[in-house]
Amino acid sequence: MNIDNYDDLLDTFLDYHYHEYLECGEKRDYEIDDDDCWKEEDELLAITESIITRKIYTSREKISLQGQYKEFLQRVTSRLLEKRTVRFLARSFAVTGNHLGQQSHGFRWPYGPVTIITPFNFPLEIPVLQLMGALYMGNKPVLKVDSKTMNKLLPEANPRMTLFTGSSRVAEKLVVDLKGRVKLKDAGFDWKILGPDVHQEDYIAWVCDQDAYACSGQKCSAQSLLFMHENWSKTSLLSKLKDLAERRKLEDLIIGPVLTVTTDSILEHVNKLLEIPGSKLLFGVDLWRIIQFHLFMDKNFELVTKNIRTIPDYYRLQEQSTISCIGCPGKNDVIGKSVNGTTYAGLRASTTGAPQNHWFGPAGDARGAGIGTLEAIKLVWSCHREIMYDLGPVPNNWEIPPST
Fold this sequence. Notes:
single chain; alpha/beta; Aldehyde Dehydrogenase, Chain A, domain 1; Aldehyde Dehydrogenase, Chain A, domain 2; four-stranded parallel β-sheet; 14 helices; 15% strand
């Protein structure tokens, strides 16, 4: 590389860090598009399905794993971090001061040693996005690998910031152990609200089934609770939900066992729920509808939201629970009068939309983290640092003033 003057040298020095990552991204995209990278796609499919029982695609004959993974990697990771957007993540700003030579600069500053813990059922997307975001902002991350050693490593290594994506119980433990130096994208209470307008009944039923039971209901934003206006009770929505749920079989990998909760504990929980006045078991062991008055009694609320954790009443429930995602195929006033995390609104609203083109994360919590956008990277992996430049000049007739 030929450097003709000081400005070129300075520009090369400042941009070198980002050029390295851009080159890495270009090589990554090249490998994704290389057919040789996907010769063992059947083996990769088997490994993936052994980790989590879900149907990767609809038909082995019609859609190849190569196409699915290439689309995923390109849409979720490559498109977010492509081209020259990386260098703008740490963009600073300047504000004029009170006198000549004074100027304040605000910088996005890396934390330095950081940790990424993502013990979740998306073993590719979340670690990749958070790891690259941490690197792009200039940090030195440790990516969680072994649960047997991580709890010992964190207190001793004392990272300046830890990103955690997982259960609320572990998240709260990390807050205490790491003295609050954490960003959380933990499990929340994800619900769907059906307003008074009844339409597209088949589509709404299908979305509800997908949000609740796809990936065995173990996705981070799986539908936890369904609120519906009384108008929907006059339709066949509930019977359609039952029919759709009963289609799910282990044979074709669209449902599977939940290994983190025992059968006895689930059955015990359901039996306790059925003791609440007005409750009714619609199908399986999942309770879909509970009379409002009894739901909001303190003891019943804790019971209903344990493990399976009219509009004013919805707001009361919001105040009592941690909500990270909400789907609202109904009225806009739900959005304006709530403080939730990522909210999907409209006819096609789904609580389990992957963050391919939007921010995904909680709101209303100072510890909240995000994923999926440039703003998420800046929030999670950098802090604000203000540097005040006061270079003078000192006035020629300046004299030492009286002490104050």
